[in-house]
Amino acid sequence: MSCPACFRGAAHDHAEPKGSMETIHGMRTYVAGGSDPARSKSAIIYLPDAFSLKLVNNKLLADEYAAGTGCKVYIPDVVMNGGLEPSLMSKMETLMTPNPSWTITGVLSKISTALILIPSIVPFLLFAHPSKIYPKILSFARAVKADLPPGGKLGAAGFCWGAWPATKLCVETTSTTTPDSDTSASATSSRLIDAQFNGHPSYMVKTPEMVVDAIRKFKVPYSSAVAENDMQFNKAEAEKVEARLREVVGASTGATSGGQGGEGEGEGCTYEFKIYDGCVHGFCVRAPIGKYDDTNESGYERAKRQAVEWFDKYLN
Fold first, then answer.
1. Which domains does the chain have, with CATH numbers?
2. Which of these, 145, 153, 164, 274, could form a disulfide with 194 (CB 3.0-4.6 Å)?
3. 10: Cβ contacts below 8 Å, ≥ 6 apart
């Protein structure tokens, strides 16, 4: 995660969180929904962006997923230091917005803003890669899966920072013992994750095979909402991954624009990469709501539906 857009966006104030903070398997966790087991026996682990539980947007989105699917949704407190402070978003906007004209005052303002950002963002970039906390995420996911009632399934949702571990969880089993065979029968009975969704993923440009493995190994249904103008995983990168998938798992309709999506079902694999025209990194979580950015706000709403429909289809 190295693009400035990872730290830009808007805090949402259109609703209040409906869930609660609890300790789940030894981890501080936001819990949303799941009050009606007759509707769904399944759960979703929501792995957030860099702002984690400090940004209300993540809680509100978890509430929406819970309401739309009936699943219980967990956001574990796994980002370093509990996540970055949401106030950094406005400072990053100030830093990255070009001055209308060159002035000494404008330059000094940029410098002072950068000096405020550096003590928070540089340590995050250096020390907060999700691989450092991944063993705890894996243990948490296995414990949640083990607690599900018979017939319950587990989904993983990841955004920006959280997309990397959400993808990696797709190659894991419910225990530390890995099956000897990758046949669909053994994979279905032992895979940890039953459906995955991610939005504007980070850290995955240099590891396209990670996405291929996540889809291919245990046939986990895999969905991704991709911003066309993302500095990280954008339309071009999604098309590269999708092309590689066509090579190894068979036919696919391809990644297309406008949020319509491309799909593939070769060798029993199910995946989609939906490209959101005009959207930027962060749109799934931090798009301004009711303010000044209709493109990203529309993308936010459509990506939310994409996730809810995907989880409802494969978890319920």
1. 4-89+124-315 (3.40.50.1820)
2. 153
3. 89, 286, 287, 288, 289, 291
